[in-house]
Structures are given as structure tokens and as C-alpha cells.
Specification:
Layout: E1 6-7, E2 17-20, E3 25-28, E4 34-35, H1 37-57, H2 67-75, E5 79-80, E6 87-88, E7 94-98, E8 105-107, E9 120-121, H3 128-139, H4 147-152, E10 154-187, E11 191-215, H5 222-227, E12 237-238, E13 248-250, H6 256-277, E14 284-296, E15 300-313, E16 316-323, E17 329-331, H7 337-360, H8 374-399, E18 416-433
Parallel strand pairs: 9-15, 10-13
Antiparallel strand pairs: 1-8, 2-3, 3-4, 5-6, 7-8, 7-13, 9-12, 10-11, 10-14, 10-15, 11-18, 15-16, 16-17
Helix pairs in contact: 7-8
Length: about 450
């Protein structure tokens, strides 16, 4: 038998309630009533608990007596809207939605209880109109963005979603070895001699991390979720379903043990970076080996507010995400190939002029110095091309802001360096012969 949802309705008129992010209260648009979160939570606590208990007692596909029964139970992921009686279909991870027939917020029974009950929540602070405004701002300053995209893309969907996150804490001890190099360049009339001294830079230390977030939903793109950080943890609240009406809420479908690897990589990135900063007296330092030991704390389970926006242009969909608390917007925008080609040409010409002035001074525009020997190719082609390529990468990077987080710098404590030693390894000498001009 399909279970009934718990629909959060106005105690005054029975209309649908929604959480007002601007007021931080539950609001009814029908009678304009406003209610505190604790008030609505208390009103629906018993009813929600009964619905969750009934859902928990229902058989699961693993408990089925036959393969046919297991298949039927697996397909029966729907529930009944308690307001209008419509059957709502779910993939089993949507915990809160809105009934498309009566407009009431529907909390799926059992999806936010037991092992799926979040510990914490950050309520939405920004509204739908803020997300739409932020998207328009996101377009500005993108030199390579096609002009027609701004006026021609169509917004397909704007949805406020409570995304499940695991929050990890750990104390990490580490030992690393860097191949550190000091360079000395000596110029002679006929050659350039580069002397490189190699050192084994050993470092030992530790760092603590608190509440490093990793999204626990396969529906959410990891790049978008990492790029909208950080969240302001001062707004963390004990979880209450009363924050959910008016938004979609997903429960996790990747448990804490699966997601922990991503948190570990982020902690590793921050700790290695801290170690690297201690070998700053060298010209370069490349990591040779590392040994990190993690002492994990129990992970917290939280729901964080995210506005998801989908647009279409020229037959392709573009997905954007905005932090529903801070307003940080990320996504991937299209690149205009004609604009990119023009930008490359301009950057090359500017870099060509600057490079020749830097290398040849007053002779920069003397045709006699427009050589294409090894040195001439370097000055006239290679260096300008490299500069143009770097500039292009910067402009293209403006369009690709949904990048998965690789560090946990916003969530770490003080780095403690407990041991260090630098051991000389070897000297390397490189000789480059100069070509004499005719």
C-alpha cells in the first residue's frame, strides 16, 4: 500500500505553506499568515513521526519473498498526496517536493527519518528573483561569451534544492619529501651555463580540518557543488522539516564512506600546499613522496540550500548553480570561436611588440633584427604565442567556473610544522651554446 505524504498547510486557512527565505518564517500566500519554524514543527511533529514510522515498517525489495515481489517493491517509489489524493512518483531520493495537482508541499514519508535524518540544515537566505538576477550578472564581463547567448538563451527551470552534504572532520599527520632546486645562471660570450643544486627537503607536520563538505547526491554535479562554496556555518541550524516547504529536498544516495575519499583528497591538497610553502627559499620544489595519516571524526549529515538554473541555447542545455545562502553563482557558458580567434590575434600582436621591445630595445622595429634563427623564432613566435595562449586560457576560464574543489583551505585549522631538514643531493649543470650573429 502506498503511504501518504505529510503536507505542510497553513493552520489558519489550510493553504500551502512555504518557507520564506527573506523572513526566515513559513508563509501562506492565501491569507498572508506568518509562522515561526518551531511553531509549525511542533504542529506537525506527531503526524510526521507516524508517517515516517509507517514507511519504515513497510517491506523493502531486500525483504521480498520472491523476485517478482522485489521488482514491484522497487518500482513502488511513489506516495499519496495527503491534500488531494494524487499519486506522486519519486525515484526514492526526493524527500520533499510540491504536488503538481494541488500545489501543496509534500514530504515523502521515511525519506528524512532514521539513518536519513539530517543533523543540520542551512536555511535558504536568497529567493528565486535573486537567482535570476545573479544569472544576469554572471554573464557580464565574459569577453568570449557570444552576444546572442545573452538575449537568446531561454530559462527552462529555476529550482530551489536542499542538497545533501556530508561534513567531515579529521586530524591529519603527514611526512613529505620535496625535490627542491636552486638555480644559478652564468652568462658567457659563447654560452649560457645553468647550475642546478638539488636538495631533499623533508617536512613533517599536522593540520586539523572541521566540516569539510562533500555532496552526497549523484544528481548534483560535483563541480557545481564544490565551486559554490564556502557556506557560512554560522547559519547552521538543527534540522527541521519545517524549513523544507516550498523547496525540493533530496536525501543522500551516496553514504559517508563513499564520499569520504573526496574529502580526503581535499584535505591532502591543503596539507601538501602548506608543506610546499615551507620550501619557499628554493626556485622550484616538486613533491617526491608523501605519507599522510588521517584520524577521522564522525561525519555530520546536513542539507544546504542551492538554486539550480537550467537554460537552453542553440539546442544545448546549460546548467548553473547558486549558493542559496551567499549568492555565489557558477556554471559553464559557451565560447564564441570568432571572438576567441580575434582575441588570440590581438594578444599575439601585443605580445610580439612587447617581447621585441624587451629583447631588442630601440632595434625592435629594425627589419635587420627580424631573424628566424633559433633566437629569432623564440622572440618573434614562441614567446608571443605562449603569452597569447595564457591570456586565452584566462578568458576561457571565465566561462568555465563549475570546477570541483581540490582543497579544503576554508575548513582547516593552523598548520603545525614539527620537523624539517634539507639534505644536498647533487649538482646538475646545463650548457647552452649561443649562436653568433653574422
Amino acid at each position: 500500500m502506498t503511504n501518504e505524504s505529510v503536507n505542510y498547510q497553513c493552520p489558519a486557512c489550510g493553504g500551502p505553506l512555504h518557507f520564506s527565505s527573506a523572513e526566515q518564517k513559513l508563509a501562506c500566500d492565501y491569507c498572508d499568515s506568518r509562522f515561526e519554524v518551531a511553531e509549525v514543527e511542533a504542529l506537525y511533529r506527531e503526524r510526521q513521526a507516524k508517517a515516517d514510522a509507517k514507511a519504515s515498517a513497510a517491506p523493502t525489495p531486500e525483504q521480498a519473498a520472491s523476485p517478482n515481489e522485489a521488482e514491484m517493491l522497487g518500482m513502488n517509489a511513489g506516495y499519496i498526496c495527503s491534500s488531494c489524493g494524487a499519486e506522486l512518483i519519486s525515484d526514492g531520493t526526493v524527500a520533499v517536493s510540491t504536488c503538481p495537482y494541488c500545489g501543496n508541499p509534500a514530504v515523502a514519508p521515511g525519506q528524512l527519518s532514521g539513518s536519513f535524518s539530517p543533523d543540520l540544515v542551512i536555511p535558504f537566505k536568497l529567493e528565486r528573483k535573486d537567482a535570476l538576477s545573479a544569472l544576469q550578472e554572471h554573464y557580464k564581463g565574459k569577453i568570449l561569451l557570444p552576444k546572442s547567448f545573452i538575449s537568446g538563451n531561454h530559462i527552462k527551470e529555476v529550482q530551489g534544492v536542499y542538497v545533501p552534504f556530508w561534513l567531515y572532520g579529521a586530524h591529519v599527520d603527514g611526512e613529505v619529501h620535496f625535490d627542491a632546486e636552486n638555480h644559478r645562471v652564468t652568462e658567457y660570450s659563447d654560452r649560457t651555463v645553468t647550475t642546478i643544486n638539488h636538495y631533499d627537503a623533508y617536512r613533517k607536520g599536522n593540520m586539523s580540518f572541521e566540516r569539510v563538505p562533500v555532496d552526497g547526491s549523484t544528481k548534483m554535479p560535483d563541480g557545481h557543488m564544490g565551486a559554490i562554496e564556502p557556506f557560512d556555518y554560522s547559519s547552521l541550524r538543527p534540522f527541521s522539516v519545517a524549513y523544507m516547504p516550498g523547496f525540493i529536498a533530496n536525501r543522500y544516495d551516496e553514504d559517508s564512506s563513499i564520499c569520504r575519499d573526496r574529502a580526503e583528497k581535499r584535505m591532502e591538497g591543503s596539507l601538501i600546499s602548506a608543506f610546499r610553502q615551507t620550501v619557499s627559499s628554493y626556485n622550484t620544489a616538486s613533491l617526491m613522496s608523501q605519507n599522510l595519516d588521517y584520524n577521522w571524526e564522525d561525519a555530520d549529515y546536513a542539507l544546504f540550500p542551492v538554486w539550480m538554473l537550467s537554460t537552453s541555447w542553440n539546442g544545448k542545455n546549460y546548467l548553473f548553480a547558486m549558493n542559496g545562502q551567499t549568492g555565489r553563482m557558477v556554471g559553464e557558458l559557451p565560447c564564441s570561436k570568432p571572438k576567441l580567434a580575434l582575441a588570440t590575434l590581438i594578444f599575439f600582436i601585443v605580445a610580439f611588440v612587447i617581447t621585441r621591445f624587451a629583447c631588442l630595445g630601440s632595434n625592435a622595429f629594425d627589419i635587420a633584427y627580424l631573424d628566424f634563427d633559433l633566437e629569432g623564432i623564440l622572440i618573434n613566435i614562441v614567446i608571443p604565442l605562449v603569452i597569447a595562449a595564457i591570456a586565452d586560457l584566462f578568458l576561457v576560464g571565465q566561462l568555465k567556473t563549475a570546477v570541483e574543489a581540490t582543497s579544503a583551505d576554508s575548513y582547516c585549522g593552523q598548520f603545525d610544522l614539527t620537523d624539517e631538514s634539507d639534505t644536498f643531493i647533487r649538482t646538475e649543470t646545463r650548457v647552452e651554446m649561443k649562436q653568433q650573429k653574422k
